[in-house]
């Protein structure tokens, strides 16, 4: 069982900032310290992740492995600078689709813009990246695992329609099978760290309870991709969260202000904003 007293989260990149001396940008990155392992989950959209880590007094050369939540630029764009700073061979855990040719569709002018990883795999490998691509959960320790491919088991958490992947047939809906989260089984309960939750926060939480063999959720933190959710989806999400009964909910990045406000109003004594510069220690006190 992961000892919660040894667990710390440092948010290195997010849309907003919580203190002076750090830079916000559209993206996400969190450094996870467990006492035994140091994990970098995503790298933001640019060099802000590295700059903020230095500004927060954190040494990324101590990172043991990197996990990529999916292949969008706003979660992978800082990877080149991070690898250049670390200057060592390092495992990078991701889904095999992480290097898919990802695009965003603009319905207003019927155009597509590339929004995938902005670097060639070979370039990243030349800086020490050792990719561990798997569809199954990747066990970092006996109590910490990536989600692996997240099953979509309900009818209301759908992939945003404007997210596409370029194939031989043209621009098709991206199923975002590469969407990954991190599950941590602690003495306080299950902690789930989301990257963007493209496959649905509720789907991911249910999957996490299955993988980690527990129904006791202590915290869910990260991007929820509720920014595109309609009222019906938000209502069902809130209803199911009440049933799951997490002690803490910390939203970030792709949640969107209206959805974040809705979650806060539903859980005013359990909610916190997860911004650039945030430090989460356990047990969390809000």
Give a verbal description of the structure:
- With 286 residues, this protein is of the alpha/beta class.
- It has one domain: 4-Layer Sandwich (Metallo-beta-lactamase, Chain A), CATH 3.60.15.10.
- The chain is 21% helix and 29% strand.
- The chain has helices at 48-55, 73-76, 79-86, 121-125, 201-212, 231-244, 257-266; strands at 8-13, 29-33, 38-41, 65-67, 90-94, 102-106, 111-114, 129-133, 139-141, 144-146, 163-167, 170-173, 181-186, 189-194, 217-223, 248-252, 271-273, 279-281.
- Strands 8-5-4-3-2-1-18 form a 7-stranded mixed beta sheet.
- The chain is globular.
- It starts with 7 loop residues before the first strand and ends in a 5-residue tail after the last strand.
Key traits:
single chain; 286 residues; alpha/beta; Metallo-beta-lactamase, Chain A; seven-stranded mixed β-sheet; 7 helices; 21% helix; 29% strand; globular
What overall form do the CA principal axes indicate?
globular
What would you call the structural class? alpha/beta
* CATH homologous superfamily annotation: Ribonuclease Z/Hydroxyacylglutathione hydrolase-like
Number of strands: 18
Distance between the termini: 23 Å
Q: Give the helix level as a range of percent.
A: 10-25%
Estimated share of beta-strand residues: 25-35%
Largest sheet: 7 strands, mixed
- Determine and state the CATH class: Alpha Beta
User: Count of DSSP helices?
Assistant: 7
State Rg.
18 Å
- Fold-level CATH name: Metallo-beta-lactamase, Chain A
> H/E series, N to C?
EEEHEHHEEEHEEEEEEEHEHEHEE
CATH architecture: 4-Layer Sandwich
The tally of structural domains comes to 1
Strand order of the biggest β-sheet: 8-5-4-3-2-1-18
């Amino acid at each position: 069982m992961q000892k919660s007293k040894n667990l710390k989260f440092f948010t290195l990149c997010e849309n907003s900032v919580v203190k002076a001396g750090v830079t916000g940008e559209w993206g996400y990155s969190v450094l996870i310290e467990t006492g035994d392992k140091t994990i970098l989950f995503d790298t933001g959209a640019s060099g802000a992740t590295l700059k903020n880590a230095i500004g927060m007094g954190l040494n990324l050369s101590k990172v043991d492995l990197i996990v990529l939540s999916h292949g969008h630029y706003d979660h992978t764009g800082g990877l080149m600078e991070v690898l250049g700073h670390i200057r060592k061979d390092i495992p990078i855990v991701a889904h095999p689709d992480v290097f898919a040719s990802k695009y965003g569709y603009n319905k207003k002018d019927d155009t597509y813009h590339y929004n995938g990883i902005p670097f060639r795999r070979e370039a990243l490998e030349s800086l020490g990246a050792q990719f561990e691509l798997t569809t199954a959960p990747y066990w970092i320790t006996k109590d910490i695992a990536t989600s692996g491919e997240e099953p979509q088991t309900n009818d209301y958490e759908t992939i945003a329609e404007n997210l596409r992947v370029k194939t031989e047939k043209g621009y098709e809906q991206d199923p975002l099978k590469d969407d990954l989260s991190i599950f941590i089984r602690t003495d306080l309960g299950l902690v789930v760290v989301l990257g963007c939750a493209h496959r649905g926060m509720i789907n991911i939480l249910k999957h996490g309870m299955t993988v980690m063999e527990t129904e006791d959720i202590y915290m869910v933190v990260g991007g929820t991709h509720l920014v595109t959710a309609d009222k019906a989806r938000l209502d069902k999400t809130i209803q199911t969260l009440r049933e799951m009964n997490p002690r803490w909910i910390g939203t970030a990045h792709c949640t969107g202000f209206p959805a974040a406000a809705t979650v806060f109003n539903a859980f005013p004594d359990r909610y916190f904003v997860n911004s650039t510069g945030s430090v989460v220690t356990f047990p969390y006190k809000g």
